[in-house]
């Protein structure tokens, strides 16, 4: 298992971002808001209404949640971008090395091809010479 090298703040920001971006957070928030509004609108078992319409206290709490949650999410996003950037740089280095190796092999193949082509030309010249010699011998012998 890989050691966790994150600081306490990074762990907190990742946890807040994970929770704040989850269905659990959305569903829990929707239930809490629905209960808050219901309790403060409908006279329910004689409970005291602490936040009458337009629910200023609820808006304050929602604004506070957003105000504190946003920086944590941004910090977590920034860390992911840095990690992703490091991965991309590593991949680009590997790709560059592979391309350089490929180019090196390609140059080697071209050089070998040129060398083989030169040898082939030499063999062709020698074969033409042998062919001429055989024709001459055939003419001389009258075969």
Structure keywords:
143 residues, mainly alpha, single chain
Provide structural commentary.
This protein is mostly helical and 143 residues long. Helices cover 83% and strands 0% of the residues. The mean pLDDT is 90.
**Can you count the beta strands?**
0
Strand content: under 5%
Overall tally of domains: 1
Distance between the first and last residues' Cα: 86 Å
Write the topology of this structure.
Layout: H1 8-20, H2 23-41, H3 56-141
Helix pairs in contact: 1-3
Give a short summary of the structure.
It is built from 3 helices and no strands. The protein has 143 residues and is mainly alpha-helical.
